[in-house]
Amino acid sequence: MxxxxxxxxxxxxxxxxxxxxxxxxxxxxxxxRSFVFMGGRGAGKTRAGAEWLRWSMLQGGCGRAALxxxxxxxxxxxxxxxxxxxxxxxPLKCRRPSxxxxxxxxxxxxxxxxxxxSAEDPDSLRGPQFDVAWCDEIAxxxxxxxxxxxxxxxxxxxADPRVMATTTPRPTPFFKALLAGxxxxxxxxSMAENAANLSAGFxxxxxxxxxxxxxxxxxxxxxxxxxxxxxxxRRQMIDAARVETPPMLEDVIVAVDPxxxxxxxxxxxxxxxxxxxxxxxxxxxxxxxxxLKPLDWARRAVVISRxxxxxxxxxxxxxxxxxxxxxxxxxxxDVPVRLVHARLGKRARAAPVATLYEQGRVAHVGxxxxxxxxxxxxxxxxxxxxxxxVDALVWAIWALLLxxxxxxxxxx
Length: 412
Known about the structure:
Blueprint: H1 6-14, H2 17-20, E1 34-39, H3 45-58, E2 64-69, H4 72-80, E3 98-100, E4 105-107, E5 113-118, E6 132-136, H5 144-154, E7 162-167, H6 173-179, E8 184-189, H7 202-210, H8 214-219, H9 235-240, E9 251-257, E10 270-277, E11 280-286, H10 294-308, E12 312-316, H11 322-330, E13 337-342, H12 346-358, E14 362-364, H13 369-375, H14 388-401, E15 409-411
Parallel strand pairs: 1-7, 1-8, 2-5, 2-6, 6-7, 9-12, 11-14, 12-13
Antiparallel strand pairs: 3-4, 4-5, 9-10, 10-11, 13-15
Helix pairs in contact: 10-11, 12-14
């Protein structure tokens, strides 16, 4: 048994993570510029990134860091103030770093600074320079390639500037290119490997609910999945038409696919906002959410309709009939509500919409990860669960681009 020296004892007392970290969470000491730690939800990605950044600033001699996330809110709420964030992993309360929101700087007690950036704004990284960077949920970055390239040009301080990226994988073109880079080190982890740090029974509950589905493979086990065989929608055609901002729209609607039941285990209520200009539909927002009671999902639909300036709300009435309209009215809807009833199955209804995607006539405004993940699983062998988000999307695109008198729908 190795007895720690006085210096080693001091180091461990200031950095208890040394004793609890799994080997996979710690980057190799050298031989890399980019380290990607990808894994499922709850795999310990955020803790690994925060501990590595903290060590770099307090023990590694780094003085200027970049913290980049999908949005400024994500950086502060997850990377800094989250339970595994930089502020709360500090074992000594008196040494916790302080954050200045106005300057967007996290200051450590030794004078080192971490500057906060949003992946929505690559130009904000022009000018600053760093010797280390931590990037979170990089596979979900809207302008990933532009932000990454700009960051790389600023990583020019110190003898060995580096960047660590933590993320749940998604097969975006930028992320796949990053993984293939010659100086990128990759490690993968699943939720189960971090079970000791999660609520008792959580991993088992997730496995029981999602089993060997594609969703489980990506979100639980951290696998990067390409589009499964048989799926109606493909990521390539979604990415090809993606835009950052929509044009001035001719019409905007919100489509709602209400769940048959409510409660913690109920299907999500699909809520999609979309608009149209010159024969092209623009998917503006995905406000879908699971486990909502009728009045709650109705209020959510009303809020998003006001935010996007919708002309009307279209709601599928297969499950609730006229009651769907009444619930929306109780929630304070201030635009017309049009109820529709499907005559064909979900795949048959979605097929014409998939054709419009292939023709480049549907564009997503920004990234809509949960919607897009469901789209690219829908129709594939083994698809499980309700395609709630896809159903709402289909109603929205139908209303904006397809013939209202088609044989597959009846307006009530």
